[in-house]
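May I ask for a sample protein chain and its fold as tokens?
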Amino acid sequence: MVARDQVPCLAENVLTSTDPMTAFIRAVGLDSYACTPLIHGETLIGTLGFGRRASEPFSDAELQFLRTICSYVAVARNRLDVQAEMMATIQAHETLAAEQARLIERLSAQPANTDLTMIAHEIAQPLSAASNYIVVVQRALEGLGGATGLAELSHARAEIDRCSQIVARMRRLLQSGEINAEFNSVQWLFEDALRLVLSGRPNAESIVTVDVGAGVSDILGDRVQLAQVVANLVRNAIQAVATHCAPQVTLRARAAGDWAEISVEDNGPGFAAGTFPEPGVSTTSGSGVGLSVVKRILAAHDSDVWLGKAVSGGACVTFRLLRRDAAVGVAGAAERALVRPD
């Protein structure tokens, strides 16, 4: 009950009570029992109870003292949980980092393989994000262990898990051209991509604006791969405006018939030639692989990517995805076409 309501509970005169709630306390010979929830930040860790056999009830001063003890226990318990999760996360991160290093070593020892290079490029992004989350927790542990420690570690674990999903889904895409099609919220897609990009660029958060228009329903596609598409485009835009005195990047979604048009605009210098660079060529001091990944993933989603000029004068990169309403309508029409009249 204390854990459910997260409110301290005091039971007195238990030995003379017939309340079934105090049956266990009565069975072990306690006459007074004070139970307090262990809460750190907004996280419930557990409960801690103190019992007294004597018939003398707890005084107000004693109850205050016991609840003070509980607050210290909650901090200590949270710290131990964070440390345990920290070690497990770091081990998982180091294992994946070692796998990535071996992959890059194999790539360097053989002729260029575009498919493997794409996988290595995409793995590096969530690994970097996971590293940033882990650093935040390490710094917190140097103090008292912040209440957000476990949350940060859960983000790190999520990014490490993303690495495994990227490898599996990219391999499936490259081998068979298949994707994991599912309905996804555009808002969620943007949030996931920005979390991946901004984890290592906290100062860039203020320059990125999200604009989701009315009527943009869920879209159909592979959520892991589409998040990589958006993350790649936003990352390139942030790099393009790095030297601008007032940098701006806008992530926009608009309904366009059966499609949701998604664009990333910036007020940087744009592309000098007015076209995308050749594969392997970067205009932002990167590897030049990101755009190839974007095109490959979007092609599997029956889409392409277009380069235009933003109102601000920079680049505007756009692609489109099938909206949920349209996808359901197409599926329904297909089913009706299969039904033959008697």
Observations:
- The first strand starts at residue 9 and ends at 11.
- Strands lie at 9-11, 32-40, 43-52, 182-184, 208-212, 219-221, 249-256, 259-266, 305-309, 315-322.
- The chain has a mean pLDDT of 76.
- The two ends are 61 Å apart (CA to CA).
